[in-house]
């Protein structure tokens, strides 16, 4: 059985993206925390 897709709202995406430059959280840590691929993270940017 396939996992359901997780759909992040634009507000959630911006909040995740802001944590990298403002809070100095590494991209790898954000991807692990939110179960994102690094490719998706860069696409959002």
Summarize the structure.
The chain is mostly helical. Helix content is 64%, strand content 0%. The mean pLDDT is 90.
Would you write up a description of this structure?
The mean pLDDT is 90. The chain is an all-alpha fold. It is globular. The protein is 64% helix and 0% strand. It starts with 9 loop residues before the first helix and ends with a helix. The chain has one domain. GO terms for molecular function: sequence-specific DNA binding. It comes from Singulisphaera acidiphila (strain ATCC BAA-1392 / DSM 18658 / VKM B-2454 / MOB10). This is Transposase.
Q: Unreliable runs, pLDDT <50, ≥5 residues? A: none
Number of domains: 1
Oligomer: single chain
How is the main sheet built? Answer: none
Give short descriptive properties of this protein.
Transposase, sequence-specific DNA binding, 0% strand, 45 residues, Trp_repressor/repl_initiator, mainly alpha
Q: Which secondary structure elements does this structure contain, and how are they paired or packed?
A:
Elements: H1 10-23, H2 27-34, H3 38-44
């Amino acid at each position: 059985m396939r996992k359901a897709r997780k759909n992040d709202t634009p507000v959630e995406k911006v909040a995740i993206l802001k944590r990298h430059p403002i809070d100095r959280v590494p991209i790898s840590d954000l991807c692990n925390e939110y179960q994102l691929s690094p490719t998706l993270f860069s696409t959002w940017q």
